[in-house]
Design goal:
The protein has 192 residues and is α/β, with parallel strands linked by helices. It is 38% helix and 23% strand. It folds into two domains: 107 residues, Formyl transferase, N-terminal domain (Rossmann fold, 3-Layer(aba) Sandwich), CATH 3.40.50; 60 residues, no CATH class.
């Protein structure tokens, strides 16, 4: 029976560019009974992305794609996703912007985690911008990916207090801890 449940999980690809802490967290979540997803593919645009080691560790297929020519990269990517029967994509620190053509192919099936309370601080350097603006709160958001950067419908957010002593680095650490809790919650919210 347990094997059957595993077969019904939604085949998911996680796209990364860095350390992969959200990837590792999603893999652990995917192995729980309540998880509606299985992680079947890891995609990275960086050869030395530390997160790729989780592919070896958990025996998950991984692929590194060079995005210098986005058309070629996305064509390969679409073929890979099709071959692996991927139905859902989680962006987890993926530092490339996907084309509108690619996003349309997976309309409503790509989500991203962003280290700010969107719509505030789209793009990069979210923590230093929040501190510079003397914000009282920051946080993280899980949202659907659309053609406009960090502008898709928000699925779920978590608010975090910014302390006077916080630096961009300390804030990044606090927010990341919340991201690890928030990403699985967002997935449960989508599929339940």
């Amino acid at each position: 029976m347990a094997k059957l449940i595993g077969l019904n999980k939604i085949k998911t690809a996680v796209f990364i560019s860095g350390t992969g802490s959200n990837l590792k967290n999603l893999i652990n979540f995917s192995k729980t009974k309540k998880s509606p997803i299985s992680i079947d593919l890891i995609i990275s645009n960086i050869i030395k992305a530390k997160g790729l080691r989780y592919g070896n560790q958990y025996k998950i297929k991984k692929k590194i794609l060079n995005f210098k020519n986005i058309k070629i990269a996305e064509k390969k990517l679409l073929n890979l996703l099709k071959q692996n029967k991927i139905q859902f994509i989680c962006l987890a620190g993926f530092m490339k912007i996907l084309s509108s053509k690619f996003i349309k192919q997976f309309n409503g099936k790509i989500i991203n985690i962003h280290p700010s309370l969107l719509p505030r601080y789209k793009g990069l350097n979210t923590h230093s911008r929040a501190i510079q603006n003397k914000d009282k709160f920051t946080g993280c958001s899980v949202h659907y990916v659309t053609e406009k950067l960090d502008s898709g419908k928000i699925i779920i957010q978590k608010k975090i207090k910014i302390l006077k002593k916080d630096t961009p680095k300390s804030l990044a650490k606090k927010v990341l801890k919340q991201e690890h809790k928030l990403y699985p919650k967002a997935i449960l919210k989508i599929f339940n």
